[in-house]
Amino acid sequence: PAFVYKILGTAPPSPIPHDLPLSALGAEDGFIHLSNAQQVPITADLFFASSARLWLLKISSEKAQ
């Protein structure tokens, strides 16, 4: 895909840093968890169901590598 998405349960820092900080899960796993467009609703339901508001960062796949 041309883009991947990072779902956040809290507002991202402003301005958004070039290098995204790892979440607790990402730090444990050693990488940033990203979703493709079709996965976003599923990932949001699985991991962010209790969040009242979500933020979605759209990231170029080329830059994510």
UniProtKB/TrEMBL annotation:
Instruction: Name the source's superkingdom.
Output: Eukaryota
Which Pfam families does this UniProt record tie to the protein? DUF952
Q: Which PANTHER family match?
A: BLR1139 PROTEIN, DUF952 DOMAIN-CONTAINING PROTEIN
Q: Under what name is this protein listed?
A: Uncharacterized protein
